[in-house]
Design a protein that fits this description.
The protein is α/β, with parallel strands linked by helices. It has helices at residues 13-22, 44-47, 65-86, 105-118, 135-142, 161-173, 196-207, 222-229, 245-252, and strands at 2-6, 26-30, 53-56, 90-96, 124-129, 144-145, 148-152, 155-156, 186-189, 194-195, 212-216, 239-240. The protein contains 9 helices and 12 strands.
Length: 257
């Protein structure tokens, strides 16, 4: 099968390309680095020629709601319209577990992303993933001031990007006409609940960083309350796949330097 991966050079896109090729699919990497721009549409029609399935693993340049909403709306419509012209059969969209109750921010932009994809001319299914193991370092860096990282007690079931890539490849293998009533959203998460603060501490220790991790809470912030209450945990029907964050650290996150 010929599969286009939008966001092919990103944190999830790279392992997705690898897994698809390992399974024998012909892969078309879509990114500005490959000469294709999902925002301007440059190179998109040529890239999608003969493609059967698009995996939309795009991510915008900012965590801000307005900027990300504009990014996802434009990119998703361009992928849907160019895909329809090319005869693409299905779009698989990567999203995030538990985002429905969040009133704003990046998670609200992802809700828009899902709606635009589901409203397009090509049938779409949603794969919602928990936060990636690989994202812990990014969140820690964003939260660092001097030698202290201030992080919320986010409850999540951290999952490896490679594990999510394998679920996306499974979805590609099932591509075709949607069942009656449409596809249900797929959830993929790690094997057990973890806390962002604890994960950041383990990562700092593994990296050999002299960084203090401090838990912070803001009861007035509805997003923080939701994170602490477990809104980002998977539902009862989710696929739970390893490795745990600790196992991943042992194999995939060697000390830097």
């Amino acid at each position: 099968m010929k599969v286009a991966v939008a966001g092919a050079t990103g944190r999830l896109g790279r392992p997705t390309v690898e897994v698809l090729r390992e399974r024998g699919h012909e892969v078309v990497p879509i990114s500005r680095r490959n000469g294709v721009d999902v925002i301007t549409g440059e190179g998109l029609d040529a890239a999608l020629s003969g493609v059967d399935v698009i995996i939309d693993a795009t991510s915008g340049p900012s965590p801000e709601e307005q900027e990300e909403t504009q990014f996802f709306t434009t990119a998703t419509r361009n992928l849907q319209q160019a895909g329809a012209r090319a005869g693409v059969r299905e779009v698989v969209v990567v999203s995030i577990i538990g985002i429905d109750p969040f009133p704003g921010g990046y998670y609200a932009a992802k809700i828009v992303h899902e709606r635009v994809a589901l409203g397009g001319p090509i049938p779409a299914r949603i794969v919602r993933a928990a936060q990636f193991h690989e994202f812990v370092e990014t969140l820690t860096d964003w939260a660092t001031q001097g030698d202290v990282a201030y992080l919320p007690n986010m409850r999540t079931q951290l999952v490896a990007a490679r594990t999510v890539a394998e679920v996306l490849a499974d979805a590609v293998a099932e591509a075709g006409a949607p069942p009656a009533g449409g596809w249900e959203t797929i959830e993929i998460a790690g094997p057990r609940e973890e806390n962002l603060v604890d994960a950041a501490m383990m990562l700092a220790s593994r990296r050999g960083r002299a960084l203090k991790i401090e838990a912070v809470s803001d009861p007035a912030n509805p997003e923080v309350r939701l994170m602490e209450a477990g809104a980002l945990l998977p539902g009862p029907g989710a696929r739970l796949e390893g490795p745990t964050f600790e196992q991943w650290l042992e194999t995939d996150a060697a000390p830097s330097g």
